[in-house]
From TrEMBL:
Keywords: Heme, Iron, Metal-binding, Signal. Residues 1-24 form the signal peptide. It comes from Thalassococcus profundi. This is C-type cytochrome, methanol metabolism-related. It comes from the Bacteria. Residues 74-147 form the Cytochrome c domain. One of its GO terms (molecular function) is heme binding. It holds the Pfam family Cytochrome_CBB3.
Amino acid sequence: MPRTATPILVAATLALGLPVAASAQSWSDQPVDPAADHPQVPVAYEDGGRYYTDDDIPTYNVAEDGTVDWLTFSGFRRYHSECHVCHGPDGEGSTYAPKIKNSAVNMDYYDFYDVVVNGRANGNSVMPHFGDNQNVMCYLDDIYVYLKARGMDAVPRGRPAQKEAKSDMIQEAENACMG
Ligand code: HEC
């Protein structure tokens, strides 16, 4: 599934996209009950080290001993280099930007992508657009999956202690995306 390679193209055509409705911000304010049914969470299948739901939405996988899938680990690193300056450590939010660990659970995957690719403005509250930033776009599934795991309390705060190895497929997709 070449999802990681396509956002750059999407970005090129949608970079001037209109801001999403301001009411959408409440995604981050809605609490998450990890015990409730979240169809966008359970793993249905694995493909080359990536995990997907029934609806082919990327998701995290945490083994019983706490070992996380590669994307969750990579997402932790990417989040903390690109997003945490505004959204706070571990996706917890700040006085300036919303708690996007909740957004990753409550928002539709494609809406989440759309906000990051095109940005969003609500008065003085501005989410920059990252559609032309390879360091974000090539790892957006990683960041999304990591935040979803945080929102569901499936991984603790901080750096995951144990991770799966990076698969050849993930490495190849990264090389192709980063060019
Ligand atoms: C310069 C500060 C800044 C940076 C860096 C930043 N954001 Fe944001 N982001 C914001 C602000 C502010 C908002 C709220 C915008 C609004 O009020 O509509 C936001 C909103 C969002 C939302 C919508 C949340 C919701 O519940 O509706 C998502 C998703 C998001 N950001 C993801 C990211 C990701 C992923 C990154 C890193 C790649 C990132 N942001 C980096 C400032 C930032």
